[in-house]
Write a structure and sequence with these properties.
Oligomer: single chain
Largest sheet: 5 strands, antiparallel
Pfam family, one: S1
Strand content: 35-45%
Protein name: 30S ribosomal protein S1
Shape: rod-shaped
Function: Binds mRNA; thus facilitating recognition of the initiation point. It is needed to translate mRNA with a short Shine-Dalgarno (SD) purine-rich sequence.
CATH topology of the largest domain: OB fold (Dihydrolipoamide Acetyltransferase, E2P)
Strand order of the largest sheet: 3-2-1-4-5
GO cellular component, one term: cytosolic small ribosomal subunit
CATH class of the largest domain: Mainly Beta
Domain S1 motif: 26-92, 110-176, 197-265, 282-352, 369-439, 456-524
Low-confidence stretches: none
Structural class: alpha+beta
CATH superfamily of the largest domain: Nucleic acid-binding proteins
Length: 559
């Protein structure tokens, strides 16, 4: 009877075992650690199946494995039985499956996930997300490029899933998104406390050509190079260094765009407030050349106060020269204050005003009438320029080249670089002009010939040429022309052909014009003057004497 009962129990148990389904391969099952040996954990997954798992699969990246006999764990059943009759299981794949389920939910809900960076790959890093491996691009590590990612390795921290594909096993995460989110919250909090005009401390984080970025405790502000100091700053690195703590003033805050403009010079005294008192007009000061441009040079009078020496105020003589050929950067120069505009923060300076006008100096050394010598600098269609002392030029006009003939005909006899002598005839220091004359070296034959000759004087001339309109005559080398109408009082005698070259004639001087070098002469005027004189001496028409009687008496008296 008992034997029949035992058989029935055995059949019942056998039937029960048949009714229990063996778990499917590729599923996650629960098991119990029954032993640890040879670096492996032996796990009983039930169903009279045992499997082995390497201990390293129970460890997080960079950590020691945490597993003990008796622990219940989930494993992935890859194969029910292998050649040794053991189940092929994996703790890592179980964690991965569980992790993917968790990550998909987090991705759908846009929640953060926790992970640890454990390796470096091309273009970025690998991150363990509790069993699933994700890719962290290098651009998503931090808000700024990271040179050394060593401190971040193995550190558990939050990440944001940017993209995932379970079928392909791809997950892309970002650490930067987390930092920017927390940074935005911190920035909003800091900006909410800032007001324009506040003086705050900050740390210089970055320096560029146009300024520096200053960390105000979670938010950066731009300190522009023009707001660093009242003086000219060529590059921010002249006065700032990365990591330096500086005191700045909040100039402007845009709470929508979170942009902050900062200034350092606003916390210092403005030197322009006392410019007019320190630098009165026409006062002379020593300054330093800070910048040179095509139109002039900037000279620093004191820290924060610069003035412009325009190119026209740099030299008395160098007119068309670049300022860089007159002064150099950092050179100390003497300048005169010409004009001040405090509203526009402009000071006009003069360099040449600190030196005497070379034309005035020349006038003192070489007054009009002085003979000078110089080199022919340039020849033009209206004359030539002669180089004189102190880099100034004098001009010899065509009309001052020769007394005889035309200047156009003789200027070809002169050449650039040739040394010539000339006489100073005019100096205009205000217009910076000096007139010279080469023909004056030999004296003025016209002036010499007409010295002592006055209008109305009777002089003797020699006929040098006969023309239809009159005759050409010479008086002590000064030539003149007597028109036909001036050859005689009598119209019948107004014939040029009645004279011959070489004839000596007494004529009356009617005009002397030194500018045109013209001597007006007339035989007719002499005859009329003689007649008038005779009438006055020997009678008049009222006495009844005839003109013939008067002239006859005058002739007898002359005889």
């Amino acid at each position: 009877m008992s034997q029949n009962a035992s058989m029935e129990e055995f059949e019942a148990l056998l039937q029960e075992s048949f009714e229990i389904d063996t778990p499917d391969e590729g599923s996650v099952v629960k098991g119990k650690v029954i032993a640890i040996e040879a670096g492996q954990a032996i796990i009983d997954v039930g169903y009279k199946m045992e499997g082995r798992v390497d201990l390293k699969e129970f460890a997080n990246p960079g950590e020691a494995p945490e597993i003990s006999v008796g622990d219940e764990v989930e494993v992935y059943l890859r194969q029910v039985e292998n050649a040794r009759g053991e189940a092929v299981i994996s703790r890592e794949m179980a964690r991965r499956e569980a992790a993917w389920d968790h990550l998909e939910k987090a991705y759908a809900d846009e929640n953060r996930v926790e992970g640890a960076i454990f390796g470096r790959v091309k273009g970025g890093f690998t991150v363990d997300l509790g069993g699933a491996v994700a890719f962290l691009p290098g651009s998503q590590v931090d808000v700024r490029p990271v040179r050394d990612a060593g401190p971040l390795m193995g550190l558990k921290q939050p990440f944001q899933i940017l993209k995932m594909d379970r079928r392909r096993g791809n997950i892309v995460v970002s650490r930067r998104a987390i930092l920017e989110e927390s940074r935005a919250e911190q920035r909003a909090e800091v900006i909410g406390k800032l007001n324009e005009g506040d003086a705050v401390d900050g740390v210089v984080k970055n320096i560029t050509e146009y300024g520096a970025f200053v960390d105000l405790g979670g938010v950066d502000g731009l300190l522009h190079v023009t707001d660093m100091a009242w003086r000219r700053v060529n590059h921010p690195s002249e006065i700032l260094a990365i990591g330096e703590t500086v005191k700045v003033q909040v100039i402007k805050v845009n709470k929508e765009t979170h942009r902050i403009s900062l200034g350092m010079k606003q916390l210092q005294e403005d030197p322009w407030e006392s410019v007019q008192a320190k630098f009165p007009l026409e006062s002379v000061h020593t300054g330093r050349v800070t910048n040179i441009t095509d139109y002039g040079a900037f000279v620093e009078l004191e820290a924060g106060v610069e003035g412009l020496v325009h190119v026209s105020e740099m030299s008395w003589t160098k007119k068309n020269v670049h300022p860089g050929k007159i002064v150099s950067t950092s050179q100390e120069v003497q300048v005169m204050v010409l004009e001040i505009d405090p509203a526009k923060r402009r000071v006009s300076l003069g360099l040449k005003q600190t030196m005497r006008n070379p034309w005035e100096v020349f006038e003192e050394k070489f007054p009009i009438g002085t003979e000078v010598e110089g080199e022919v600098k340039n020849i033009t269609e209206f004359g030539m320029f002669i180089g004189l002392d102190d880099d100034i030029d004098g001009m010899v006009h065509l009309s001052d080249l020769t007394w005889e003939g035309r200047g156009e005909d003789v200027i070809g006899n002169y050449h650039k670089g040739e040394m010539v002598r000339a006489v100073v005839t005019e100096i205009d220091a205000e217009k910076e002009r000096i007139s010279l004359s080469i023909k004056a070296l030999d004296g003025d034959p016209f002036a010499e010939a007409t010295s002592g000759v006055k209008r109305g004087t009777i002089v003797t001339v020699e006929v040098t040429a006969i023309e239809d309109g009159g005759i050409e005559v010479s008086y002590d080398g000064a030539k003149s022309f007597i028109r036909r109408s001036d050859l005689s009082r009598d119209r019948a005698e107004q014939r040029p052909e009645r004279f011959q070259v070489g004839d000596k004639l007494d004529v009356r001087v009617t005009n002397i014009d030194p500018k045109t070098r013209r001597l007006g002469l007339s035989i007719k005027a002499r005859e009329i003057a003689e007649e008038k004189e005779a009438v006055e001496q020997y009678g008049s028409s009222d006495s009844g004497a005839s003109l013939g009687d008067i002239l006859g008496a005058a002739l007898k008296t002359n005889d």
